[in-house]
Design brief:
Layout: H1 7-12, E1 17-18, H2 22-40, H3 46-56, E2 59-60, E3 65-66, E4 70-72, E5 78-80, E6 85-86, E7 90-93, E8 98-100, E9 105-106, E10 111-113, E11 115-116, H4 121-125, E12 128-131, E13 134-136, E14 141-142, E15 147-148, E16 153-154, E17 159-160, E18 165-166, E19 174-177, E20 182-186
Helix pairs in contact: 2-3
């Protein structure tokens, strides 16, 4: 009989897993150490920030800037493309993949939340969790305080207004605002 998948394998496959598994706890502690280094580093040390982010994240694109503080669960599930600007206070709950494509602008205090929890109370009591990936396509602008929920894709060139809560996919070339976010304008590429 084959070995059952580890909690990390279950998490990466998008299946239910238990977050306080020792292997996952060790990986989370690594991310906390690296984010602490980033968040307490000299704010003028761009090369030091880049070195930490390159070690922490799956990818950190050329010409991108991320202003601390920054928080994530694991880091290796988050990738940031080239020429992105990420303002202060990004939270990337990267239990599932968080893909930020090229030329994305992210305002302060944005939350990218991949984590989900079962509706079944028994599963929650037993500490089971899951997650769904988030994809932010090219040239998106997420205004300050935007929250993007699990499983959401934000289409290319889309602008999401400050404070919006995005719980469903947004198409390319739109402006969306509100809670839940709704499209209020469409424009040409």
């Amino acid at each position: 009989m084959p070995d059952s998948p580890s909690m990390r394998e279950r998490m990466l496959a998008g299946e239910l897993y238990i977050a306080d598994d020792p292997e996952l706890a060790e990986q989370s502690a690594r991310a906390r150490r690296l984010t602490h280094q980033l968040n307490t580093a000299d704010p003028h040390d761009a090369s030091g920030h880049r070195a930490i982010l390159t070690e922490l994240l799956a990818a950190f694109g050329e010409g991108s800037e991320l202003r601390p503080p920054f928080y994530c669960d694991y880091g290796y599930q988050t990738s940031i493309g080239a020429r992105c600007f990420v303002n202060w206070g990004l939270v990337s709950l990267d239990v599932a993949r968080v893909m930020i494509s090229d030329d994305v602008q992210i305002g302060p205090n944005v939350q990218l939340l991949t984590a989900t929890h079962p509706i079944n109370p028994g599963l929650r009591l037993d500490k089971w969790e899951a997650a769904e990936p988030i994809v932010i396509m090219e040239n998106v602008w997420l205004g300050g305080g935007v929250i993007v929920g699990p499983g959401v894709t934000v289409g290319q060139n889309t602008v999401v207004g400050a404070g919006a809560v995005v719980v469903r996919d947004l198409p390319p070339n739109v402006v969306a605002v509100g809670n839940p976010a709704r499209v209020i304008r469409t424009f040409e590429d």
